[in-house]
Write a structure and sequence with these properties.
The chain is of the alpha/beta class. It has 22 helices and 21 strands. Strands 1, 2, 3, 4, 5 and 14 form a six-stranded mixed β-sheet that branches. The longest helix is centred in the last third of the chain and has 22 residues. 43% of the residues are buried.
Length: 532
């Protein structure tokens, strides 16, 4: 039985809290697959299997007002019990979960990244981008006219498949590198992404920035290109180089015009220091430079949000609504473009650190790993050598299924952390059971979940799969043995069972009508700052 000091609140209570303008973390603790079947528009997804690892970064202030919801099965109460030992003091569990939310008259939305995709539809309606169809683009590229295709997605997605000849320029880098890429004002520019949102925002960024060129957006992106029978280029490394001084200066001037037009606030280092010292407000520091730039030098306490991921997937970086969000990069261009879209999405007080990293005392290296100390965790652990000497051992990987697919210890079965207790009860084993995960931390947490039901024959592998490979052992790849449903892995429309083409068409139709659904579902969070 789960015991917790959290209070119960109704769906109506939660709706009122969301409307009062005060800070609130509204969190859906289901794994991503059930979350994607239908969730509240503004609920951030922090799955129960990951919550201790992510909550400190996403909700840094421990007395933040927090509402936890689930699918009605009781996982929110479990999450509250796990958060209390971490120091969170203002926890509420929404009674009845998603079904109660819908029964109260509130809307549930399928898919993921819904606020961003809904905003993409809002931007399409109000910003009125100039679209080009895949057929028109193909004809244009085969003509003698001067066209260039700029792909605004992160590089990894670009390498999966891009329009032949296109150049990868993620998100706000479009403004900063534009003059280097498009020297002739008569060149016609096409911006694309996978389906719509990032292409629309990328194209409109150039329009708002005031570039002299004709700018088009590829309708339905690479998905539309494939649906119309054209092929994609694979594993391309064609990407924009770091901007020249001249292109950067032009980008800075254009970014300043964007900030002025949209009324985006700038703050100095003194203000930032004062904000960070205020105990009753949350201030997020979000560095929108590249990962290598971040590791070379960043303001201590900032998060790395590269390649335009911040507007598209904000819940990876913050989960407190109505907070302060300070955007940072080295020259303010990328920060400004990201701030434009976040401000229009209505997240909270979005500001730019006016001098970027200049004059700051910087830290180096990646973001630090979560510092989790559970003194009550008394679970036997073994090392790699001991694992090799065990007979009749059952090895269970309770890390993420994506990491398991990339590389795991041969013979290991994968099980979701949330299903481990059921597996151990349903399938007892007459030999030792060893839990592992990417670095061993998730295995420790999974063992801690078992509490008084922890089997005497269970232990955890020190260092997990990383230690195994560092010892010179080969890793297996793929999902070979599943002990539970892969609830932590989201399937894109092209990966779902059934008719792939129809799945993609249905998804694109959903994106087109999403803003209508949001309007019907209640108050619209988006703001129309620069469009008449």
């Amino acid at each position: 039985m789960v015991t917790t000091m959290s209070r119960l609140v109704s769906a109506q209570n939660v709706s009122e809290m969301l409307a009062d303008g005060e800070e609130i973390a509204f969190i859906d603790v289901r794994e991503i697959m059930p979350f994607g079947t239908g969730h509240a528009l503004l609920a951030a997804n922090l799955p129960l299997s990951e919550i201790e690892l992510t909550i400190g970064m996403l909700v840094p202030r421990r007395d933040t007002r927090m509402v936890l919801m689930d699918g009605g099965e009781g996982e929110a109460a479990v999450a509250a019990a796990r958060l209390e030992p971490l120091g969170y003091t203002d926890l509420a569990v929404m009674e009845g979960g998603a079904p109660a939310w819908q029964e109260s008259g509130e809307a549930l939305f399928p898919e993921i990244e819904v606020p961003a995709k809904g905003f993409g539809a809002f931007a399409r309606i109000n910003g009125k981008p100039n679209f080009i169809s895949p057929h028109e683009l193909n004809n244009a590229l085969e003509s003698d006219e001067d066209w260039i295709v700029l792909d605004s997605r992160p590089n990894r997605e670009f390498r999966w498949g891009n329009i032949p000849g296109s150049i990868n320029v993620p998100s706000a880098d479009l403004v900063r590198s534009f003059d280097d890429l498009v020297a002739d004002p008569n060149t016609k520019v096409v911006v694309n992404c996978m389906s719509g949102t990032r292409g629309i925002l990328g194209g409109l960024s150039l329009v708002v920035a005031g570039v002299p060129n004709e700018v088009r957006v590829l309708f339905h992106g690479t998905r539309g290109w494939l649906l119309d029978g054209y092929e994609l280029e694979k594993n391309s490394d064609r990407a924009a180089a770091p901007p020249s001084d001249a292109s950067r200066e032009s980008g800075i001037a254009r970014a300043a015009r964007i900030a002025d037009a949209a009324g985006i606030k700038r703050i100095d280092t003194e203000t930032l220091g004062r904000w960070r010292g205020e105990p009753d407000r949350t201030t997020y520091l979000l560095d929108v430079g590249t990962q290598p730039e971040f590791e070379a030098g960043h303001i201590p306490g900032s998060r790395c949000a590269p390649e335009g991921r911040l507007p598209m997937s904000p819940e990876q970086y913050f989960a407190t609504l109505n907070a302060r969000y300070v955007l940072i990069d080295d020259d303010t261009v990328r920060a400004t473009v990201n701030a434009l879209w976040l401000t229009k999405m209505g997240w909270g007080e979005i500001v730019i650190l006016e001098n970027g990293l200049e004059g700051e005392a910087l830290a180096t290296g990646p973001e630090p790993a979560p510092d989790l100390d559970f003194p009550d965790l008394q679970v036997p652990s073994i090392d790699i050598e001991t694992l090799g000497s065990l007979e009749n051992v059952r090895l269970i990987d309770v890390g993420t299924s994506d990491a398991h697919e990339v590389g795991h210890i041969p013979g290991a079965i994968w099980c979701s952390r949330v299903a481990l207790a059921d597996l151990l009860q349903a399938e007892p084993h007459d030999g030792p059971t060893v839990l592992t995960s990417e670095d061993g931390l998730r295995a420790k947490l999974a063992a801690r979940d078992l509490g008084d039901t922890l089997p005497e024959t269970l232990s955890i592998l020190e260092g997990g799969n990383t230690a195994w490979q560092r010892a010179g052992n080969a890793a297996a790849t793929g999902i070979l043995r599943l002990a539970s449903t892969r609830v932590d892995h989201w399937l894109a429309s092209s990966e779902r069972p059934g008719d792939v083409r129809q799945n993609v068409v249905d998804y694109l139709d959903w994106e087109i009508t999403l803003f209508d659904d949001i309007e019907k579902g209640g108050p619209v969070p988006y703001r129309n700052l620069i469009w008449a």
